[in-house]
Amino acid sequence: MNLYFELLKKPIFKMKDVDYYYNNMDSARSAIKRLMKEGMAAKIRNNLYTCISGETGAPVANRFQIASYITPTSYVSHHTAMEYYGITDQVYYDVYVSSQTSFRDFTFDKYTYRYIASKTLEGIDKPSYSGGIAVTNLERTIVDSIKDIDKIAGIEEVVQDIECLHRVQEKKLLKYLELYENQFLYQKIGYLLWDYKEKIGLSDNFFESCKEQIGKSKRYLTKDQVGGRYNNTWKLVVPAELQNMKNGVMTDADI
After folding, report:
1. Going by C-beta distance under 8 Å and a sequence separation of 6 or more, which residues neighbour residue 198?
2. Tens of pLDDT, residues 218-255
3. Lowest mean pLDDT: which of 27-41, 97-111, 176-190, 229-243?
4. Residue-wise burial string across 201-214, b where 16 or more C-beta atoms lie within 10 A, e elsewhere
5. Contact between 25 and 34 (Cβ < 8 Å)
6. What is the pTM of this model?
7. Cβ atoms < 10 Å from Cβ of 92
8. Angle of the 183-194 helix axis to the 204-211 helix axis, nearest 10
9. Beta strands 236-238 and 229-231: pairing type?
10. What is the structure's pLDDT at 248?
11. How far is C-alpha 203 from the chain's CA centre?
C-alpha cells in the first residue's frame, strides 16, 4: 500500500482517515509526519490535512474545499461564494466561511479563513463532483452579502458584484429575506437591486413585497456614513458617490 496515493483520493483528510490503513493511531501519526517531512502532505489546521501535488507542488485541496471541511456545518459564503460562481474575477485572500460551530480564524497557503456565525442552513448547495464543496446558492449569497455589507465586502465590492449578476430567482430571494426577518435588509435589498431589476429578472411584485416590510424607519445605507442623498422610496440615506459606483444609472427620479 502506498499511503500517499491512497490519501490523494481525498482532497482533505483527517487523522482517522490515515488510521483506517493502520488501525493504530500512533502508527498513523508517525505516517503523516513522514509525509509532511517529505513535502507530500501539509497540515491545514488541527486534524485537517491535504496532500501536496507532485506536479505543481501546491496543496491538492482548493480554498473552497478547505472552507467546506473546517467544521461539520461549514460552508462557503458571502464574497467568497461570489468568487466560486465567477461573479468577480478578482482573487481575494480572505475566505469567508459560515458555520454553526465557531472556529478561530487561521491562515493556510496565503489564504485566511474567517469565521462567520451561520444563522440558517437554508440555501446551501453541494455541487456534484466538486470534492465536497458546500456553498450558499446565488440568491442566498446575494442576501447575505447585502445583509453584512458593513462587516465583510463593503459597499463598493457588493455593488460591483451586483453589476455582474444575470438572472436570479426572486422567490428564493424572498424566502431568505423572510428567514432573516430584518426590515433594514428589505430596505437595502430593494434599493441596491432596483436599477438592475430587468437584467436580473426581478418583477415589480418583488419590490412591492420588499416595500411592504420596510416600516417607517429612516436609516443610513452604510455604517459610519457621513451625509449623502435621501431616497424616499426606500427611506435610506445613501452615499452621494454611490451613483458613480452604479455606473451612473441612478437618476434624479430615484432619489
Report:
1. none
2. 999 998 887 789 999 999 999 887 756 654 444 433 43
3. 229-243
4. ebeeebbebbeebb
5. no
6. 0.90
7. 16
8. 150
9. antiparallel
10. 44
11. 26
Q: In this predicted model, what pLDDT tens digit does every residue of 31-47 receive, in sequence order?
A: 999 999 999 999 999 99
Rounded Cα distance, 145 and 162, in Å: 10
Nearest to 152 by CA among 57, 211, 239, 222: 222
Q: What number of residues does the chain have?
A: 255
Q: Cβ(139)–Cβ(173) under 8 Å? A: yes
DSSP 59: B
Other Cβ atoms closer than 10 A to 104: 9
Exposure pattern of 162-199 as b/e (b: 16+ CB <10 Å)? beebeebebebbbebbeeeeeebbbbbbbbbbbbbeee
DSSP string covering 99-150, please?
ESS----EEETTEEEEEEE-S--TTEE--TTSSS--EE-HHHHHHHHHHTTT
8 Å CB contact between 105 and 115: yes
d(CA 145, CA 223): 15
In this prediction, residues 43-62 reach a mean pLDDT of: 96
CA distance 218 to 229: 12
Residue showing cell 451561520:
118
